[in-house]
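Notes from the 1:1 (GR / supervisor)

We went over the backlog. Supervisor wanted to see one worked example end to end before approving the batch request, so GR pasted a single chain during the call. The sequence is below; no edits were made to it. Supervisor asked that the structure be written out right there so they could see what the output format looks like.
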Amino acid sequence: MYINKVFLYGNLTRQPELRVSPSGSKVCSFSIATNRRYRDQVGNWNEASEYHSLVAFGRSAELIAQYLTTGSSAFIEGRLQTRSWEGPDGKKNFRTEVVVEQVQFGPRRPGDAPSVGYRKDDGTHADAGGATNTVPAHEELETIEYPTEDINPDDIPF
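Structure output shown during the call:
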């Protein structure tokens, strides 16, 4: 058995681009920057950034385009996929990108749109703007409903 699984947590480096494919499905392209801190051989701290190209399909594509902007943080679960095509000059081009399977929106920054909720097919409620939201790419969502009040921590049974 082989595994092709990617987990990324980072900030969007550009505005998500939502398109419609010829078959009518929604496609969203965006990129995320991640970084790591490490010590070099001398003991000095260094920081290195990596930039990742991502693509999402269906309802996840719509939600990403609607709620994430440049600088927003997100936790992405997906898989690697490499595409190839022949350019107008006859040269073969390759692009490796992460196909999004799940996305969790990170904490909202000041000035972002207010938290918006949605109701899933099983009737449970999820918060589309909070840090704990999980949106599976294959799950169809119904209508978006705006919450009337914030969650009170005293109401949580644990």
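Supervisor's comment: Helices lie at 58-67.
Batch request approved.
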